[in-house]
Amino acid sequence: EEQLVESGGGLVEAGGSLRLSCTYSRFTYRMGWFRQAPGKEREGVAVIKRSSGSTYYASSVKGRFTISSDNAKNTLYLQMNSLNLEDAAMYYCAAATYRSDNVFRADQYDYWGQGTQVTVSS
User: Fold this and answer.
1) What is the pLDDT along the chain (122 residues), one digit of tens a residue?
2) Distance between CA 95 and CA 13 in Å, rounded?
3) CB environment 60-97: b (16+ within 10 A), e (fewer)
């Protein structure tokens, strides 16, 4: 079974940057970052496909966030720049073992990490 462990969350001022990391035992078909703020649904933020290296971003983070993976280190990253108050949430790493037509749907992923909290101050 895949085990995902996130790290790198914390408190940052608006406009600042953070880099999240997620260690995995093996890169499955597709991996992604999701986030969930209190009272809101879990939303997909960024996704990367193993075979092609293609990346996908939610419109709210495009141009500010970058997803990448280092297969030698079995680590997935999310570089987050120009953070704003709306980015504050619990961030989760997720892995999928099969193809999906909607890579931002949470139910299209088989494995999840425990989450890492990102807090943005004004």
Assistant:
1) 889 999 999 999 999 999 999 999 987 899 999 999 999 999 999 999 988 899 999 999 999 999 999 989 999 999 999 999 999 999 999 999 998 889 999 999 999 999 999 999 99
2) 29
3) ebeeebebebeeeeebbbbebeebeeebbbbbbbbbbe
Per DSSP bridges, beta strands 10-13 and 116-121 are: parallel
Contact between 13 and 84 (Cβ < 8 Å): no
What SS3 state is found at 117?
strand
SS3 16: coil
CB 21 within 8 A of CB 91: no
Residue 51: Cβ within 10 Å count: 9
Looking at beta carbons, which pairs linking 58-64 to residues 24 or more positions away fall under 8 Å? 58/104, 60/86, 61/87
